[in-house]
Amino acid sequence: MKKILSLALAALLVCPLLTACGGSAAKYPNGEVNVLNWGEYISDGQDETLDVIEKFQEETGIKVNYNVCPDNETLYANLKQGDSYDVIIPSDYMISRLIAEEMLLPLNFDNIPNAADVDPNFLNPNYDPESAYSVPYMWGTVGIIYNTSMVNEAITSWRALFDTKYAGQVLMINNSRDAIGVALKTLGYSYNTTDPAQIAEATDLLIQQKKDGIVQAYVMDEIFDKLEGGEAAMGVYYAGDYLSMHANNEDLAFVLPSEGTNIFTDAMCIPVGAANQSNAEKFINFMCSTEVGVANCEAIGYSTPLMSVKEALDAEITSDPVAYPSDEVLASCEAFLNLPEDTLKLYDSEWLRLKA
To answer: Which range marks the domain in which residue 23 is found?
Structure first.
């Protein structure tokens, strides 16, 4: 879910092929692996970081065709229309949906020995009760990022996003589950409500926010440039990305609102129809190695589910309450669940009503 994805990409809702490093069959004698991930959600060699894809290709002789996608709903739509990938990294609730619709292959963990490093707290989750289809990649929370040079109060509540004194200065997250979820939490409801009246009330709140001129834009990774450059006072986004933004603008602050927020896990899976399952399992195993896990965490700012990686990270990172909130804070968080089909259809229609 992460850094600079083009506006055209988000608007077209496509996941384009970005072939990493190119090369001939002689350079990559062991075939290829097609990977779908979120933008800038891997250590890519910039700023003296490890180029994970290049390292995998060198060590295995497997070519990586690396693809990016803006959100879970687009990932799902692309799979449904027949796009072929070997490794995908959806979020928890989408993994649950993909399992229910028989769109994922069970993993052969004999080929993924590094999965033994996953913290037991991340095993057998609600979205994959037997940990048969997924290996956790990163986890995190969603909150409000705000510019302390533009906001003269400590932000504590989701209601700040609906305050008319911030007209034209608020960036809302551009996907239905997160945006409607923010409004649900603001109103005191569960992220996972199936009550049509509550979902409609939440959408009405977002529509009023637009009518009041509070929303500057609905964004995904465009939020980096806007918040780092002081183009908006606050926005809704992911804790890991805040840590990257703060490194470029120390005026930015992050808060998990008092009403509670979303805690998510993104995990590596193999979709049905994968042409290179063996190479996919090699890639997943590689991503679970300590060296690669540390590089990814340091590059993208997200929190690791791998025990050896957390132990190897600098204490300044693992003691940061944004990256690793206390158990008390986590107790107030709520994970998205896969919703019934009629509720998902309602989300689609309400999202269209909001964006009309």
So the answer is: 7-138+265-325
